[in-house]
């Protein structure tokens, strides 16, 4: 078929031990084998040890009272409660050795921390107060070595392929600590040392650190600000420098230094009360495009959960399932090598629910729906836009985009008379946001909220119909019988039955494969499905059929050229996005969005850019109950790009997606992505100038109809 293949040929990373999976599977009943396939595909490591609870605050020091041992035990108990611990592979902890600590910290500092093990309370107090917002206990040194050792064990397990991804539940946290300084509850910088360790041990050349804790990990920034091998991304409560740690270095203008310029991304939140839409917008407009261009070999998450609703430090309003979405969005990077290391999080309920949401998605569970209106606030847009503007000179993907500063960076925070501007949150706004942090009703709120977002996982992940039976990977899928569809049955779906295409018997054969898959997906019997169809026009019929059975809103993403019936384009239940490369102008309407590339070859990077900047933001607002991806046979993109696209679309609609492929030789790649297998890296990620302009124009037009993320 006509799609392009990368050179040298790339195949998606195989699931762990595929031969073993298929051999064992054939000896078992089909249902057991499908469940086994699920277990084989997701190997998530978990490190936790009670030893890290063996230190606490020994004197009255209100600033530090929230960092307590229960943060860890509550998170672990919640993982057990949801049955997630037994699904993870337990990884052994170890103590880090001095040589490892010294990858980041000075020997003098290590000696000083070591000496705290024999101090009495008065000495500990004096020692602690030399630093900013940190306390020491005689066990602190030991626990800090265990927390770091656990982080390094996780890196080892992921880099050696013993697990695909994993989580280290550790304390003390690390991201504030610096070369010779403890800070903000942090003693050794677990994630920064983990990055240095991966570089040293595995020769990892590019590492992405995503710091979604609500505080700025200034320690990580300082350690890597001149280092282009580590891309550091942090969002944080800032309030124009009025929030701790009150550093100008936390603003978006800190982009790195020397060789590291462009590799430090700060998104300063200048208001409290940031919500799910604000966090997603930061991922779509900044982090994901830059991360794809950076192409990391390992992703480390400084996973603080103090940016969640109810946290007394963050005072933000994102809900726990937002972290399921963020985790899913990071999984395509670095061939799925993802290490999540706990940092902050001080509301025990928010913390533990968010830890579980993250773990679920690492394990491959469906991503729950996000509630609420998906529109970022003005202040968040300003921070994101300024970060894009300041990074535009360093990143090709931003080069031809709309990236003007919203405020002049040289005057930000300073009024004309030289006084500090007061964009910090007012007392009134704070009251609204903190209502849950002080009220007795928080647990009730959380109980009812979690009931809304905890979704059932269909027993079978992927169903196939009419894809042939030769591919080994299909052993992991449920084969669905096709049924006979008549012209009359289809005719009533579109244009009152007078659609010329109904005379095409190949279309009827395709729909006979597609409709039973839609039935199974919408009945939650399977999570997703795939069928081969000789004609791309089956996509529109599939979408219309879905709305007549159970789906009240369907996102139809078509890759390639085909005519779409007018009544489908105008149907407010079906959002149609058609991406194609033949430059034919098509008339756009609210529910029909054509993206026609000016440059009609190698639009892999362009397609993913349009996904981040247009398709996903639109889809989050539209909230589809089913996603249909129809892939034409003559589109000029690589298979690996389709695999990434298929992964991202599973963040919507609780993972309910039907893929229709016109080319049968794409089936293996698409099924692998539907099964949740790790993805190969894309060979390059370029947004071509001509096509960037298409996206800029389209975004402006869409704002008439849609409140974009
Ligand atoms: Zn924090």
How would you portray this structure in words?
- The chain has 709 residues and is α/β, with parallel strands linked by helices.
- The protein has helices spanning 18-27, 30-41, 70-81, 98-101, 107-115, 121-128, 140-159, 190-202, 218-224, 276-294, 322-330, 348-362, 378-391, 396-399, 427-438, 442-453, 487-491, 505-522, 538-549, 566-569, 604-622, 639-649, 667-674, 689-702, and strands at residues 44-47, 89-90, 165-168, 207-211, 230-237, 264-269, 298-303, 338-342, 460-465, 478-479, 526-532, 554-559, 574-580, 592-596, 626-631, 657-661.
- The chain folds into 2 domains: 18-37 and 460-702, Histone deacetylase domain (Arginase, Chain A, 3-Layer(aba) Sandwich), CATH 3.40.800.20; 204-455, 3-Layer(aba) Sandwich (Arginase, Chain A), CATH 3.40.800.20.
- The strands form 2 sheets. The protein has an 8-stranded parallel sheet, sandwiched between helices.
- Helix 18 (505-522) runs parallel beside helix 19 (538-549).
- The radius of gyration is 26 Å and the shape is globular.
- The two termini are 36 Å apart.
- The model is unreliable at 1-29 and 409-438 (pLDDT under 50).
- The structure holds zinc ion.
- Zinc ion binds next to loops.
């Amino acid at each position: 078929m006509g799609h392009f293949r990368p050179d040298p040929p790339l195949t998606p990373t195989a699931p762990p031990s595929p031969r073993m999976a298929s051999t064992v599977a054939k000896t078992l009943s089909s249902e057991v084998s499908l469940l086994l396939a699920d277990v084989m595909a997701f190997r998530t490591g978990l490190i936790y040890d009670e030893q890290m609870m063996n230190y606490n605050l020994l004197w009255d020091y209100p600033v530090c009272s929230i960092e307590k041992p229960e943060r860890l035990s509550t998170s672990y108990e919640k993982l057990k409660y949801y049955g997630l611990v037994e699904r993870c592979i337990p990884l052994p902890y170890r103590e880090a050795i001095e040589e490892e600590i010294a990858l980041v910290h000075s020997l003098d500092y290590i000696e000083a921390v070591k000496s705290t093990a024999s101090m009495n309370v008065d000495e500990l107090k004096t020692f602690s107060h030399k630093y900013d917002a940190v306390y020491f206990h005689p066990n602190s040194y030991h626990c800090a070595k265990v927390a770091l050792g656990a982080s390094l064990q996780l890196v080892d397990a992921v880099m050696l392929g013993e697990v695909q991804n994993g989580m280290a539940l550790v304390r003390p946290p690390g991201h504030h600590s610096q070369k010779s300084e403890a800070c903000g509850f942090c003693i050794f910088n677990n994630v920064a040392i983990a990055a240095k360790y991966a570089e040293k041990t595995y020769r990892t050349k590019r590492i992405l650190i995503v710091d979604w804790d609500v505080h700025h990990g200034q320690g990580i920034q300082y350690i890597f600000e001149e280092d282009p091998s580590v891309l550091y991304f942090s969002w944080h409560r800032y309030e124009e420098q009025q929030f701790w740690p009150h550093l100008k270095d936390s603003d978006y203008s800190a982009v790195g230094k020397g060789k590291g310029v462009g590799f430090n991304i700060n998104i300063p939140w200048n208001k409290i009360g940031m919500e799910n839409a604000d966090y997603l917008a930061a991922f779509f407009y900044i982090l994901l495009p830059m991360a794809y261009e950076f192409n990391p070999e390992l992703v480390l998450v400084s996973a603080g959960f103090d940016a969640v609703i109810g946290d007394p430090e963050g005072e933000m309003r994102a809900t726990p399932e937002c972290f399921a979405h963020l985790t899913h969005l990071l999984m395509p990077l670095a061939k799925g090598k993802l290490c999540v290391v706990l940092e902050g999080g001080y509301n025990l309920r928010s913390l533990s629910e968010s830890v579980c949401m993250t773990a679920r998605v690492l394990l491959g569970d469906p991503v729950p729906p996000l509630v609420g209106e998906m529109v970022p606030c003005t202040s968040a847009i300003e921070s994101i836009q300024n970060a894009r503007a300041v990074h535009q000179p360093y990143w090709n993907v931003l080069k031809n985009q709309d990236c003007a500063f919203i405020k002049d960076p040289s005057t930000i925070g300073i009024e004309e008379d030289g006084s500090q501007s007061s964009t910090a949150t007012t007392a009134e706004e704070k009251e609204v946001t903190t209502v849950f942090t002080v009220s007795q009703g928080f647990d009730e709120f959380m109980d009812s909220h979690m009931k809304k977002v905890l979704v059932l996982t269909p027993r079978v992940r992927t169903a196939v119909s009419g894809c042939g039976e030769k591919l080994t990977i299909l052993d992991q899928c449920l084969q669905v019988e096709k049924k006979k569809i008549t012209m009359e049955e289809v005719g009533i779906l579109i244009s009152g039955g007078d659609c010329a295409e109904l005379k095409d018997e190949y279309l009827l054969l395709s729909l006979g494969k597609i409709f039973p898959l839609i039935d199974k997906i919408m009945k939650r019997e399977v999570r997703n499905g795939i069928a081969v169809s000789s004609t791309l026009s089956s996509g529109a019929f599939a979408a219309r059929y879905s709305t007549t059975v159970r789906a009240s809103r369907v996102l139809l993403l078509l890759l390639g050229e085909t005519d779409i019936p007018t009544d489908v384009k105008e149907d407010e239940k079906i959002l149609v996005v058609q991406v194609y490369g033949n430059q034919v102008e098509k008339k756009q309407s609210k529910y029909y969005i054509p993206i026609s590339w000016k440059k009609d070859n190698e639009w892999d990077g362009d397609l993913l850019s349009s996904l981040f900047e247009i398709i996903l933001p639109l889809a989050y607002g539209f909230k589809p109950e089913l996603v249909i991806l129809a892939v034409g046979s003559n589109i000029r993109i690589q298979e690996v790009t389709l695999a990434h696209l298929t992964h991202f679309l599973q963040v919507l609609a609780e993972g309910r997606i039907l893929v229709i492929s016109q080319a049968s030789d794409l089936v293996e790649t698409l099924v692998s992505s539907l099964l949740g297998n790790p993805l190969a890296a894309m060979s390059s990620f370029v947004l071509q100038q001509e096509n960037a302009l298409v996206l800029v124009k389209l975004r402006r037009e869409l704002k008439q109809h849609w409140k974009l993320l």
